[in-house]
Request: fold
Amino acid sequence: MQTGRHFLAIPGPTVIPDRVMRAMNVPMVNIYEGPLIETTHSLFPDLKALAGTTGEAIMYIANGHGAWEGTLANTIHSGDEVLVLESGRFAVGWGNMAAQMGAVVHTVLAPPRRGVDPGMVEARLREDTNHAIRAILVVQVDTATGVWNDIEAIRRAMDAVGHPALLMVDCIACFGCVPFNMDAWGVDVMVAACQKGLMTPPGLGFVFANDKAMTIRRERGCSSAYWDWLPRAEPDMYYKLFCGTAPVQHIYGLREALDMMAEEGKDAIFARHARIASAVRAAVAHWGQGGSIECNIVEEVARSNAVTTILTGDIDAQAVRRVCEDDLNVTLGLGIGMDADSTFRIGHMGHVNEPMILGTLGTIELALTKMGAPFTKGGVEAAVAALQV
Ligand SMILES: Cc1ncc(COP(=O)(O)O)c(C=O)c1O
Reply:
């Protein structure tokens, strides 16, 4: 018999706060007039502030893949060239989608277990003398590898060459967890979703587009009615904002989540994510002393504050996850786009605090002990020490 709560420590969808669940537990309302419309419009300024933009914000009833397609349908046409900066499974996925939509996809591969190298981006763009590349696709935090990419440095690399491509950034894994300043960093399009840092059940995707991207949309058109930015950005009726029926419960849930975030404050949220991530890294470093457990991302600076991908070497990562989930009430993320037998992931994004992360780390330590795995005990103490600073 199991008592207490089962804890979900996967990197999204994340734990939904009780307040958000209660806010969503409302009967259906009139979607043509009344308070729902006001509540919907109140979301946009908050989302834009979090994205650091005065550009357009588009909201889709969609997961991250939908929002990806929403960015591509408005900016890329068949035969256009795009450059994908690959640092994990998700950049690959976005690039594959662009290819399926007819784009010619080039890639710059991040060095193994590291973030995208801006020097490599600059060198590749220098080769593109006739500026055939129309857009650069990059993921700020790749949920598969656990990497954090330095978007400002990538922008500087583009500027060093004077390359006019659109800079399009996927912040799905880290929106509301780590800083992002779209306008100040010179990002043209940003894509996000509600089910990670925004602590809302999966179902809303967001695209933020600056004037340059909106102008491209206006001049070159959009092949899709559903994903088209224009009726959503400039709706003459509420119905067009969602290209149909509004996602009523999600709107109330997201409103509550954004209120919670405003109460905590953006800087405090980012600091909490940094603190909790440092605890995870401290535990992993301790477990790995003299053994095979280690963070996938080599450089400390490129490790994300939203998710940590852990390599286990000879220790069976699938067994660690099984013991944690089946016997100990914690679900960890499985390795994706990497060897699942020697990789697991801990999500530490959104509604996460010290007891939740210490509980997760303690549970992993217990699982490793029960399995008789070779590791150095005391990771939880190391995490506690990291949390004291
Ligand atoms: C960085 C990143 N991009 C894209 C996606 C795809 O989002 P979804 O699964 O909501 O379609 C994910 C999902 O985990 C993600 O982490």
Q: What stands out?
A: The longest strand covers residues 133-139.
